[in-house]
Design a protein that fits this description.
The complex is a heterotetramer, with two copies of chain A and two copies of chain B.
Chain A: H1 37-48, E1 59-63, E2 78-81, H2 87-97, E3 102-108, H3 109-115, H4 117-126, E4 130-136, H5 171-177, E5 182-187, H6 191-202, E6 208-213, H7 233-236, E7 237-240, E8 247-248, E9 254-258, E10 264-268, H8 286-292, E11 303-310, H9 316-327, H10 332-341, E12 345-348
Parallel strand pairs in A: 1-2, 1-3, 3-4, 4-6, 5-6, 7-11
Antiparallel strand pairs in A: 5-11, 8-9, 9-10
Chain B: E1 3-6, E2 9-17, H1 22-36, E3 39-45, E4 60-68, E5 81-84, H2 87-93, E6 102-106, H3 112-117, E7 134-138, H4 140-147, H5 155-160, H6 162-173, H7 179-188, H8 193-212, E8 218-221, E9 230-236, H9 237-252, E10 256-260, H10 267-273, E11 281-285, H11 289-301, E12 305-310, H12 312-328, E13 332-338, H13 355-360, E14 370-371, H14 378-393, E15 396-402, H15 403-407, E16 409-413, E17 433-434, E18 440-441, E19 467-469, H16 484-500, E20 510-511, E21 519-524, H17 528-540, E22 546-550, E23 552-554, H18 560-565, E24 569-574, H19 579-588, E25 593-596, H20 605-616
Parallel strand pairs in B: 1-8, 2-5, 5-6, 6-7, 10-11, 10-12, 12-13, 13-15, 14-15, 21-22, 21-24, 24-25
Antiparallel strand pairs in B: 2-4, 3-4, 9-16, 14-23, 17-18, 20-22
Helix pairs in contact in B: 1-6, 1-7, 6-8, 9-10, 9-14, 11-12, 17-20
Classes of the chains: A alpha/beta, B alpha/beta.
The structure holds thiamine diphosphate (TPP) (2 copies), iron/sulfur cluster (2 copies) and magnesium ion (2 copies).
One magnesium ion is lined by residues 66, 108-110, 137, 139-141, 148 of chain C.
């Protein structure tokens, strides 16, 4: 599906030129640590964008502060590196006032969920037309290694020498609780999956939240190793695919079912009948939420990736635009004069 | 017919419970007075609570109007007439009444319980405490109920119309027209014909009561004021500000985006603008102040006129993002309708105590131009001027209004919109430089040599793709730079850009009719009226005094120092502890005297007269803040 | 259950004195509009507190800004009326540093969910020992009637003359997505239910979020009428009771079931077998979340009230305290001297 | 044995890639130097990126140390020795080197590609551009790898030990002991014996290389400094500040609660305090800065010493809550470790540009006392002083440190903890007033007549139940009050309380050995060292100059005006655009001259010498900011 076929991108100008990944590379030197997972994501995004066929100047990346938030500098599009946690708010003003832009937000687990949690939630609830890429490395990278709101309990970091006593957020659950219309999760190292998810996000009208598990090899190396290691990944990862029964394990020997008490559970070897079929388009987010709860925060066993939810709800942008249009255009300066005069005037000669 | 006496001006204060409709009554009286052709000025004063408990002091809501047959400057120091709908209203306001003033009380509400509830030991109508005033005891409630007996309304509904009875009575007493009020009621209660009829009847009954009762022997007349020719309307500061924004947006040719979060007394600007989408105005009620300014900044990045409105606590929250805007060098208008502080303070009262927050409330060297209107109607022009600066200099601008301007009203000569300045903005659409190889390139921080403004190149412009951010940028290219000398240069350049605005603003002008004054009173913002009124009174008494008023607080007009140095003494009255005074003293090394009040209310001009006069005559200066050693820090 | 039997209140001093509601009334005049739902809540809280048997001086009410946030002034306990949205943050510092206090937060839908959303979410995730009463009147009362994050779509208010284009939050869903250990909903006018829920919240260790539907008779009168009106309330309200099958309707003719696709649904007349039994203590919040989704935002049909979730998870306060205790006490000034000297010193004679 | 020459002081700068371990190398050299008994001062300077790409200019990380046989004030203007681990390090630092300075370069990294990557047209080791310096070209990497051939480490691991080789070499060159470094490595690599062995061997190899190679003919010695008697340690500002907090908490007898959010360069205070729970210190990493200060304020309400730490952007976010703290009148300590602004600015660089934000960055009149340390070790005492003021006056206090103090180090005489001030706090536990009926009551805003502090009565105290909030309160009772006169009174009283602190702080003292100076240099914060060094140099040259340094920025010491007026000329150097200068000029009407640099780096004392001298001699003053009309606004 190219951009011209994506209704959500209707208003964004297209190009006929053939674009390459390198067209999206800016002249700025990339300044992440060697080995950082951010490189893989950058490369994936740069390779993915040409498939949309949008005019480069109509794409904007807005970010907050953090290692991840350096992202816009490396993209040869418009870009705004803002302040900590506020990117969704800033991007909201841009997106609502400029329907001809494809607006992407790049943020980190601290930026999006700690200081910026409120803006993220409100963007989701309003369904502002933003594609939000949340690089979750479960640590504060840029400030050199404090725990974040997604760090596992008991984590020992610079600020928690005795181990963190915080219970972490699950970004997918949080987003679903905040009325998100599109929520997905993917992994820095899985280029194909990442690209697929980016495509679905781009095609979505409204806010698309994409959580990307990202390795910070300096301060939290191997955080997602169980999901990457050849020995464990098949047993740990649940790949959600719309319309497919949810089975996993190297030989599909595990499955997700709904149980008698209403709970969604994973089981070993189950008969077909009971296996839950994934419905990303279900109006009710209840099952998607339940799927987000399967993962073990520490071992990462039963971690679902893919698109949890993707439903249609008019974007805030569209509804706001419709009100503008309904209001009509003023009849030039006559109207302005009428407005400021109001009904009660008198004349002094 | 009764006797009619002429008055050159009158101050009336309507006071009652929050639920008594005093704001509406005042509003209607104002409207009639405006259309009659008087000059006028109003001061609403209402509690922070939505409906404070009936009959209590904190629940009193008041509205003061000053109207005259000549141009006036303030809502008046002391009312000539107090309308007190209950004991609480009497108690809360009686001390302000002018000597020999008139009190109209609603006796129905002066029950023993009601009187005691507000702490009166005895009924003030009976204990002789009102002796020095001319008191009219009128059972307003029962008269209204009586007049509406034949109407199809409940007793409660009938009682509620007592404010219209009072309005009718006062309209008669001061010979005000009531047609407009009739129209207004018809519009308002169009769908409830019984209520409409009852209110119209109550209005009528009040008027007739004045005409027929013996209690009132004289009717008053206040002639039309000789205002400059033109078409006029009555306007509050918040409304004028809203219209100024609409007009400015139109003159720039761009859309406007208001990102904001409700807060008293700024919310009405949101309410007003949300009704004018047809002028290309998008209003966004954000989740908080930070998101409000953030969204406005994002829209500005996209090429809209970004605006955010707030009051003091909200401005504090916006600090960090405002700093980002200074670093990004994008146009943005931040409107602070100041209220009493610190913290939640006195949310419905007025104050000028955010000036230094506006100047300095950001990390690092982050200069922001500041504009302040001086009267309700002037809010219109201040908004336009602020947007001129923001767009031409690519900078956030702060506009400081206050609670008094916001809700106060005055007659306003409606401008011809064609005469407003042309603010057409042109975005950069082409490369503005060449690289080492002679290829055309776009440099987002290559400045206009005149204004030092950087180009405004918005997303969607092919070939000008670029990235900006809050980290220090290299001169010209805008690439991230940690170079020490570049930083020093950029810090100074941003400051120089803001300082340079002084070249495009009118010089500070002095009002000194005789040209012989050696004392200058310097003000800013909403104190204009009280200061001007005080200066006029002083001149009327045969002394000379000069007045100058700052519309631009940052930068100051280029001639400010020169002007101030011409006077033996400069006096700066402010509704804070001396904030402008600090800036003036620090910059010009002039021993300006600060006269400060932080009472949540505008200055009374009589008080200013006293203060200025004692300074002129070299009498006791104890009323001045000693701005030297002891107290200013 | 009196306080002495509630483990969560172990550390809060008790009194033997018999307390009455009036012992909790301060000398301040109550300044809400006549008829405001806040009065009923105030009365309910004042009548309820004596049942805990706590020493009055060990109870603190912390609030933000809004009509609801005036609450602490009317309680003859310690109280702090803070700034807009920040009460959970302020209360966190108080609670964590003072385990001998019973700390209550009073907030509104704007205060808690608009400006204060982030602090609320983080308190919930950490499980700070706060009892949060969220007065939801679906409007901004104190600022005279703008729409709030819980207002229904299309709502016409002062700031939305053409109707709001925001999609509202569901506070219960949001809290569950934010890892809440206790979430309940009740109604200002139902004194018994309200009191019951307050009791359960007080007995909970960690954050208890209680959403209280509250009528603002000035700016949003009748917002919850369908749940109060004798003619509609039985058909609209789902009363959750732990361990009970979830049936509702005037004759229990409606019920909640789990469906084949994993969804939780309401149905008319259903056989016993399929009716979902409410388990407030379920470790997995999936079903509670699904129950929170049943309500229709506009008509309020299928609105569940009661305790959605009440599970045990050690409070942040307790875990933080344990770390303090583990760290031990310093040996007076010797230890302080050792600390500041550090290992590398030299002497200048 | 080689020749040994004495030097009175030396400045060395280690520079390399972020990954080269230059901070560690500098740190170890410092530690050895400190324990040897020199006086010293250090300046780390590292990029904002965690690991900027290898071999690039932005990736260069440097560490400068100045050590001497006498007391010194600064890390030195220009290094005598530059250790450059790669071409980027050479390029970024060579311009700072003193004339005839020594360069030690790691030739292994000077490949053609590496040299071009940083923009050198030709290899600087070959093109003669380093001619004026004494250059030692040493293949540090290969020598290290060679020395470790027999060790059980990978080549990469061996290469990584090259910083230890360099450290060994420099230690030999300047006769530094290496025992402590050995101990340190043993501790650090205890669990990786091969790595430990390799590092120790590399250190050894570097030392031997110096001793044996002919490249170095002379070894240097810098004698012990005659510091005041006592036990010393080396300490950075952030560490001293952390210890000051622990000590102050102990002296108050209360628990401490740190509510904070990580931000460079303040985070280390959180890291440090989180390790000292046994002193009753709770650290809370909040979701943002607002929650950080909020939680600290909540804890203060509960009777803890509430502290919050941040840098400029975080202080902006805390504004609103800080205003609440001034209204609640509760003790609270807000620490701002200033960095380069505006906005994100230069996060790892130093600046003094938050002073006016600290003074005025809140809505309404919300005065907050401000304390600023003048050296790394002084951070300890400043923390104690700030907590004294906060607890005794029940007020939030701002402590302004900066990036230079935070990360810079100096030898510090360890104080006797018993000699620290007793800060015991007593809460109010009994009614403090009587009501109309003579019954005892508690009035939360009945003030101490001496300090104007209100009682601190914490929850849990029976009989003192009361409510406080951000709305204006009635004097004495603390009930909500909208009364205009009460508001004016309360605003002035809060100001008077803060002003009154001046009575309890030491008067401003002047350093003017001759007593004959007529020019005074006034500073605050971390500029103390460079200013003192400059004044010393001027005096050494036979001229007289006076120095005074403000530790309290609000209120100023009571004698400040008196002191300043004694001088013909007052010069105020600041790392901002003249913030203290504005306050001093505004308050004392003294035509103080501002000398400003905003380069993210401490002043070089030579530059200050030039500036001060030209002012003294009445020469060109063009280097001064003209604080009159044109530029200060
Ligand atoms: C207002 C503010 N507070 C704090 C900081 C310091 N800070 C910068 S990035 C960051 C967190 C980074 O974590 P995350 O968002 O997870 O990004 P990452 O570096 O891990 O990609 C913090 C606390 C800041 N720059 N601004
Ligand atoms: C920082 C700040 N922003 C805005 C306001 C204005 N304000 C006061 S209360 C309020 C919202 C009230 O709504 P809600 O929390 O639902 O409380 P309610 O009055 O409905 O009980 C707002 C926007 C403020 N006081 N402070
Ligand atoms: S610190 Fe971690 S997240 Fe940041 S650039 Fe380095 S590896 Fe990547
Ligand atoms: S405005 Fe509404 S919520 Fe506020 S006090 Fe009045 S009725 Fe209650
Ligand atoms: Mg992270
Ligand atoms: Mg509400």
């Amino acid at each position: 599906m190219t951009a011209s076929e994506i209704p959500a991108l209707d208003l964004v100008p297209k190009t006929d030129e053939v674009q390459k990944a390198k067209d999206f590379k800016s002249d700025q030197e990339v300044r992440w640590c060697p080995g950082c997972g951010d490189y893989a994501i950058l490369a994936a995004v740069q390779s993915f964008l040409p498939s949309l066929g949008l005019r480069r100047e109509n794409i904007v990346f807005v970010s907050g502060i953090g290692c991840s938030s350096r992202f816009p500098y490396y993209m040869d599009t418009y870009g705004l590196h803002s302040i900590h946690g506020r990117a969704p708010a800033i991007a909201t003003g841009l997106s609502v006032s400029r329907p001809d832009l494809s607006v992407w937000v790049v943020t980190g687990d601290g930026d999006a969920l700690s200081i910026g949690g409120n803006h993220l939630m409100h963007a989701l609830r309003r369904n502002v037309n933003l594609k939000i890429l949340l690089f979750n490395n479960r640590i504060y990278g840029l400030t050199k290694g404090q725990y974040s709101p997604t760090s596992e309990p008991g984590k020992i970091t610079k600020s928690t020498p005795q181990g963190s006593v915080d219970h972490p957020f699950n970004p997918v659950s949080l987003a679903l609780g905040a009325e998100a219309s599109f929520v997905a999760r993917t992994i820095d190292s899985d280029r194909r999956h990442l690209t697929e998810v980016l495509g679905a996000a781009a095609a979505h009208e409204g806010t698309a939240l994409v959580e990307i598990y990202q390795n910070c090899n300096i301060f939290n190396d191997g955080a997602f190793e169980p999901l990457k290691d050849a020995g464990t990944k098949d047993s740990h990862l649940i790949r959600l695919q719309h319309g497919q029964p949810i089975r996993f394990g190297s030989e599909d020997e595990r499955a997700v079912i709904r149980d008698n008490d209403g709970q969604i559970r994973t089981v070993d070897a189950e008969t077909d009948g009971n296996v839950l079929v994934h419905d990303a388009h279900a109006e009710d987010p209840g099952v998607a939420f339940a799927l987000s709860r399967l993962a073990d925060t520490v071992s990462l066993d039963r971690t679902a990736i893919g698109i949890f939810r993707d439903v249609q709800r008019p974007s805030y942008d569209r509804l706001a635009r419709e009100q503008l249009e309904q209001a009509g255009d003023p009849a030039g300066s006559t109207d302005l004069s009428d407005l400021i005069a109001g009904p009660d005037t008198w004349t002094v000669a | 017919m009764k006797e009619t006496q002429r008055r050159s001006d009158v101050v009336i204060r309507f006071a009652g419970d929050s639920g008594d409709g005093m704001q509406l009554t005042g509003d209607r009286f104002t409207s009639a007075t405006a259309s009659f052709g008087n000059d006028l000025s109003t001061l609403p004063d209402f509690p922070a609570e939505i409906r404070a408990p009936a009959g209590t002091l904190p629940g009193v809501s008041a509205f003061q109007i000053h109207f005259a047959d000549h141009d006036i400057m303030t809502p008046g120091d002391a009312p000539d007439v107090l309308v007190a709908m209950n004991p609480a209203a009497l108690k809360a306001n009686i001390d302000d009444l002018s000597a020999n003033g008139t009190v109209i009380v609603n006796t129905d509400e002066f029950t023993k319980r009601a009187v005691q509830k507000v702490g009166y030991e005895a009924n003030p109508l009976e204990d002789g405490s009102l002796e020095k005033f001319s008191v009219h005891e009128i059972p307003l409630t029962s008269l209204t109920v009586g007049a509406l007996e034949s109407f199809d309304v409940t007793k409660k509904e009938a009682e509620r119309a007592k404010n219209m009875f009072a309005l009718g009575l006062l309209s008669w007493l001061y010979s005000r027209p009531v047609d407009q009020t009739r129209d207004f009621l018809t519009e308002k209660f169009g769908r409830k014909p019984e209520i409409l009829a009852a209110n119209l009847a109550a209005l009528e009954a009040g008027w007739s009561f004045g005409e027929t009762t013996e209690a009132f022997e004289v009717q008053y007349e206040v002639g039309k004021a000789a205002l400059p020719a033109g078409v006029y309307r009555n306007i509050t500061g918040n409304l004028a500000l809203s219209y100024g924004l609409v007009a400015a947006a139109q003159r720039t040719g761009l859309g406007m985006f208001l990102g904001t979060y409700p807060i008293t007394p700024a919310s009405d600007i949101l309410h007003e603008l949300s009704r004018h989408k047809r002028f290309g105005i998008t209003t966004f009620q954000a989740e908080d102040e930070i998101a409000g300014i953030g969204a406005a900044l994002g829209a500005a990045y996209g090429g809209s006129i970004g605006v955010t409105t707030t009051s003091g606590p909200g401005l504090a929250l916006k600090s960090e993002t405002l700093g980002l805007a200074t670093a990004l060098e994008l146009p943005l208008l931040v409107i602070d309708v100041q209220r009493g502080g610190p913290s939640t303070g006195l949310p419905t009262k007025t104050e000028q105590s955010d000036l230094l927050q506006a100047m300095f409330g950001r990390n690092g060297e982050a200069p922001v131009p500041i504009v302040a209107p001086q009267s309700p109607g002037d809010c219109f022009y201040a908004a336009i001027e602020a947007i001129r600066i923001a767009t031409q200099y690519r900078t956030p601008v702060l506009l400081l209004s206050d609670g008094y301007l916001a809700n106060g009203a005055e007659p306003w000569r409606i401008p011809d919109v064609e005469s407003l300045p042309d603010l057409t903005v042109s975005f950069t659409t082409e490369p503005n430089d060449t690289d080492a190889k002679g290829e055309p390139v776009f440099h987002p921080f290559l400045r206009d040599p005149e204004t030092l403004a950087r180009p405004w190149a918005i997303p969607g412009t092919p070939g000008l793709e670029h990235r900006i951010g809050g980290i220090e940028k290299a001169d010209v290219t805008g690439a991230i730079s940690y170079d020490p000398d570049n930083h020093d240069y950029m810090v100074r350049t941003r400051q120089a850009k803001v300082d340079g605005i002084a070249h495009t603003i009118e010089p500070l002008s002095v009002d000194d009719p005789s040209g012989e004054a050696d004392v200058l009173v310097l003000g800013w913002g909403s104190t204009y009226g009280p200061i001007a009124a005080a200066c006029r009174k002083i001149r009327d008494s045969g002394l000379q005094v000069a007045q100058a008023h700052l519309r631009h607080l940052n930068p100051f007009p280029a001639n400010t120092g020169e002007v101030l140095r011409q006077y033996r003494r400069v006096i700066i009255p402010e509704m804070n502890l001396g904030q402008l005074a600090l800036l003036i003293r620090g910059k010009y090394l002039i021993d300006a005297r600060a006269f400060n009040q932080v009472r949540g209310l505008p200055f009374r001009s009589e008080e200013l007269v006293e203060v200025i006069r004692s300074e002129m005559l070299g009498e006791s200066t104890t009323r001045f803040e000693s701005l030297t050693e002891e107290s200013l820090a």
